[in-house]
Amino acid sequence: MVGRLILLLGTILGLLVGGHYLLYVSAVRAFGIQPGLLRTCLLASAFGLSASFLVTMLLVKLWQSRISRAFYVLAAVWMGLFIHLLLVAGAGWLVSTAALALGLDFHPWTALVAIGLAVGFTAWGYWRARHPQLRRYELAIRGLPQAWQGRVLVQLSDLHLGPVHGVAFMRRVARQVRALDPFLVVITGDLIDGLGGDFPSLLPAIDSLEAEGGVFFVAGNHELYSRAGPALERTRLRVLDREVVEVEGVQIAGVAYPGLSGEAELAAFRRALAADRASILLFHTPTDIVQRGVGATDQHFSTYWTPDTTCRLNRELGFDLQLSGHTHAGQIFPFGLLSRLIYRGRDRGLHRSGSFSLHVSSGTGTFGPPLRTSACSEIVAFTLVDGRRPPGV
């Protein structure tokens, strides 16, 4: 496990160094920078910035302070800008090569305009990440009790509270949720960022979430990384792990990441479910609740690169609705294209298959670069109606 982690970090660092060197070469070529002090400083900056994100991640993990968080945020924002600049650089090489073939001049001002667009795109993504958008659905559930007709269920996911999204962000989200007057609020994992944070200061902000029927939570992979479970147990959240509870005739089932392991746990979970009740499943990833692979490493690999989003088992168990997150819908362009490919189009939004519905949230917060240029941060509100009526979306 340690060897694989070192290999992964080494690979990431190698890619970052290579990408930053490409940016350096592109800048030298675009602006005709001659050998000298400026060129040397640019090269040194490129190599320094290539390690900044990984170094500040380690710093904020080991030392929680305003200073370490500030360095991490700056490095994370740079990482987002770096991705956009790399796209600009790649386009610049194509355009300049085509211009040369056609006998046209490639002026430095063209590069300046392109850099300005990348900076503006990044700034827009930063604003978008700080302001979650409200997404509404009317959702039909078969056998929904009369008492639930027209009630609002709000889903939050992947807030990643920690070095970037702190108390102010959580309180702002809670105000938006309270304005919807929800009957139920569910949080489908990664409430706490894997890098950790100032847990004591976050708890009152988390407790500002309110709903008549309760606020339910299932752990995601970042709760494992941060070991935040004991802290969250001290909040008002109803933490579910391999549990089924009934709220006025509707079953709310929750399974913590990475899921059930083995037939014994699955059998116990089956016995807890009533076949004659409308049921909602909370699970962090848009996949079946039984682990794939023989160990944690295999499970992580399958979740990220070979996920089965058909949710066959969850449908067979009789769930009417599964609420998940995890994917961030790629978060930063062009990774949204990759997430859509990996999750076979089920990396965001509402998907129906007969009486079964799967909703995958693109996330309320962010991980890593605090930007949203692939999909918006969102708060999702479902108005529940009887399944015998034709649903509207």
Account of the 3D structure:
By secondary structure, this protein is α/β, with parallel strands linked by helices. The protein has two domains: 2-129, no CATH class; 133-386, Metallo-dependent phosphatases (Purple Acid Phosphatase, chain A, domain 2, 4-Layer Sandwich). 46% of the residues lie in helices and 17% in strands. The strands form two sheets. It has a six-stranded mixed beta sheet with strand order 1-12-2-3-4-5, covered by helices on one side. It has a six-stranded mixed beta sheet with strand order 6-7-8-9-11-10, with no helix packed on it. The protein is elongated and about 75 Å long. It starts with a helix and ends in a 7-residue tail after the last strand. The model is unreliable at 389-393 (pLDDT under 50).
Provide tags for this entry:
12 helices; 393 residues; Purple Acid Phosphatase, chain A, domain 2
Question: Outline of this structure?
Answer:
The protein is α/β, with parallel strands linked by helices and about 400 residues long. Helices cover about 45% and strands about 15% of the residues. The longest helix is centred in the N-terminal third of the chain and has 36 residues.
Helix count, per DSSP?
12
Structural domains: how many: 2
Find the count of extended strands (DSSP E, 2+ residues): 12
Broad CATH class of the largest domain: Alpha Beta
Q: What oligomeric state do the depicted chains represent?
A: single chain
Biggest sheet, spatial arrangement of strands: 1-12-2-3-4-5
The main β sheet shows up as:
6 strands, mixed
Radius of gyration: 23 Å
Low-confidence stretches: 389-393
| Gross geometry | elongated
Mean pLDDT: 91
User: Superfamily at the CATH H level of the largest domain?
Assistant: Metallo-dependent phosphatases
Terminal-residue CA separation: 44 Å
Which percent band covers the strand fraction?
Answer: 15-25%
Class by helix and strand content? alpha/beta
CATH architecture grouping of the largest domain: 4-Layer Sandwich
Q: Helix share of residues?
A: 40-55%
SSE topology string: HHHHEEHEHEHHEEEHEHHEHEEE
- CATH topology-level fold name of the largest domain: Purple Acid Phosphatase, chain A, domain 2
